[in-house]
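Predicting holo structure, guanosine-5',3'-tetraphosphate bound.
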Amino acid sequence: MNDNTTNINWFPGHMTKAKRKIAAQIKIVDAVAEIVDARIPVSSRNPDIPELIGDKPHILLLNKCDIADAKKTAEWLDFYKSNGVIALAVDAKSGKGTGEFKNSVATALSDKLSCYLEKGMVGRTLRVMVLGIPNVGKSSFINRMSGKSKAKVENRPGVTKGNQWFTVDKNLELLDTPGVLWPKFNSQTVGEHLAITGAVTDRILDIELLAMRLLQILKDDYMPLILERYSIDILPDDSYEALCAVGRKRGMIIRGGEIDTLRAANMLLEEFRNCKIGRITLEGVDFNA
Ligand code: G4P
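Done. Tokens:
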């Protein structure tokens, strides 16, 4: 791990506090809905979650599937299914896929629901805690499900605060993550993927290196998209040269004819985040952090 990534392993005290709050609230919910970013399903998952939720029924939501690679999302869903994980691809922004959420909750809680039915306890409200690191779309998902604008949506990591309940209908309530569950930077690659997607701020990382990393992934898996977007015939093998090629095509030249690689890197990252290059997933089922 290099210095850049160790630097962003921040706030251990806050993390402990958030984990304590989550552990306390877990007791009062029936299930947990864990939201991850479908473009980085591994890196956007806090690895402490399984231990935190114990044997509480669990639903995994692959959010932002509208900007992820549909084929890779389908492969992830197959992978989870074959591992007995209840998973659903959603787009909290448009609402696509969210209609299935109640069914997934019912599937996750099927034992409990049959038990209630046997005891004649019908219509009991189910409570689900929504968990996830900042920026995966928790507020957007909760707003979408509850129809309320109460959960604040901003594009800054860590803004989901407080301990709030939202009513979906008379049978389902959602609890926003109590406290901020920061991501964990278990490897340099995890830190890079979180920064490339904008889940954590990129200000403390080397922007050009991040862009070169992104170009490497794009060269390996999405070459036609990058060639088309930047009207390039052949992308150089070397990632720095590739960044220069992108900058050159966009006329990002500074005095002396040099390429403004910082500007090119910022542009590339922004275009990736806004899905201008195409629907791209950085981590397929074979990804090893
Ligand atoms: P959080 O509570 O987990 O921190 O995440 P939040 O809902 O605030 O969402 C973070 C950003 O991700 C927001 O962008 C939000 O619009 C976007 N987002 C959430 N869900 C989806 C999704 O399914 N698809 C896509 N494409 N984007 C999603 P923003 O730039 O702050 O918001 P906006 O101004 O674009 O709405």
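Residues 63-64, 66-67, 91-93, 132, 134-140, 153-155, 159-160 surround guanosine-5',3'-tetraphosphate (CB under 6 Å).
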